TrEMBL record:
UniProt entry tagged with the keyword Phosphoprotein: yes
Name of the protein described by the UniProt record: Response regulator
PANTHER family referenced in this protein's UniProt entry, alphabetically: CHEY SUBFAMILY (PTHR44591:SF23), STRESS RESPONSE REGULATOR PROTEIN 1 (PTHR44591)
Provenance organism: Telmatocola sphagniphila
List of residues that carry 4-aspartylphosphate: D52
The UniProt record lists the keyword Cell membrane: no
């Protein structure tokens, strides 16, 4: 069974994404911030990391950078709704930091599933 690490500081959003991914039959681990995500990934590598860009403490860009330095092969889908006030689009920056793919929030289930399937098949 393929494993995904889902990183977002909003528990409700993690729960919604988990429900969206359930049809793929994946094992989903969750982390609420970048520090928790690093601990989780280091102990048990996932085939894909889905990571919010804006989080308190260690944000998504920092997490992406550290993961890519330590695990060059990691696949990362960066997600963002434009920051705390919705006006900052850092998804292109996430690609520069090493994200494999990006997805703008809010997104439809079919868009998420399409990206996840494609990344897991690479």
């Amino acid at each position: 069974m393929k494993r995904i690490l889902l990183v977002d500081d909003e528990a409700k959003l993690r729960s919604a994404i988990r429900r969206m991914l359930e049809p793929l039959g994946l094992e989903i681990e969750e982390a609420a911030d970048g520090y928790e995500a690093l601990r989780s990934y280091r102990s048990c590598h996932a085939e894909l990391v889905i990571c919010d860009v804006f989080m308190p403490d260690k944000d998504g860009l920092e997490l992406i950078s550290v993961l890519k330095k330590e695990f060059d092969e990691v696949k990362i889908l960066a997600i963002s709704g434009g920051g705390f006030d919705g006006t900052m689009d850092l998804l292109p920056t996430a690609l520069h930091f090493g994200a494999t793919e990006i997805l703008q929030k809010p997104f439809k289930q079919e868009d998420l599933l399409e990206k996840v399937k494609a990344l897991l098949e690479q």
